[in-house]
């Protein structure tokens, strides 16, 4: 589904990502781990179109997408979750889901051709889909609560829900477990698993929570100093001496 070929990212004279190559198979949940400063976020930013690589290629579904902007990738089904923006904190959970733009640019135009009746029907569809998303996430009890009042874990679930409002194929999750209590963490894990197994989403996730990585991710890729140290199943990566050394040096 995704192929990274010798990606390099320089910030001035500093090489944050130094020749990174790997493939992500359709239907997998790939875990990206590594000590702070390894280049994981920079790599995510390149994949998601927030940073243009200094050199190297990115292919998504067989197409060269190197240097495309994030909105172009979004329309192709490559979506990155972001924290709910400050301005959206005053909107309710339901409204936050309804604010996600349609992933097919033609949808709105299509509705316009058929007049207001159709537009209203389309809005109804969005609301229904948003509500179904809240049901799936078990968040209907906070549907009309302002997003700013939700707990850390509920916000993470809502962020996941925002990707479900699109026709996402590959979802990049940046530290989904950060700031989430244990109970909601289990729920978040199970929702990611269902989206993967039953709805066909492919995921790449950056995570420091090794329990989550162990439960969800295969394969696991460990980065250090801008390159891939090792790729494999959780146990083999965890026990690799180079990986242990990289973490010790943190
Ligand atoms: P990780 O996510 O693995 O912790 P990052 O990708 O955030 O690593 O950072 C990798 C390295 O690149 C770090 O040394 C960081 O300081 C540096 N870096 C990241 N972004 C920038 C930037 N915009 N300008 C300069 N250096 C950066």
UniProtKB/TrEMBL annotation:
User: Which CDD domains does this one have?
Assistant: ABC_Mj1267_LivG_branched
Could you identify this protein by its name?
Answer: ABC transporter ATP-binding protein
Keywords per UniProt: ATP-binding, Nucleotide-binding, Transport
> Per the UniProt entry, what species is this protein from, by scientific name?
Roseibium salinum
Q: Which PANTHER family match?
A: CONSERVED COMPONENT OF ABC TRANSPORTER FOR NATURAL AMINO ACIDS, CONSERVED COMPONENT OF ABC TRANSPORTER FOR NATURAL AMINO ACIDS-RELATED
Q: Which InterPro entries match?
A: AAA+_ATPase, ABC_AA/LPS_Transport, ABC_transporter-like_ATP-bd, ABC_transporter-like_CS, BCA_ABC_TP_C, P-loop_NTPase
UniProt-listed Gene3D superfamilies:
P-loop containing nucleotide triphosphate hydrolases
Pfam families, per the entry: ABC_tran, BCA_ABC_TP_C
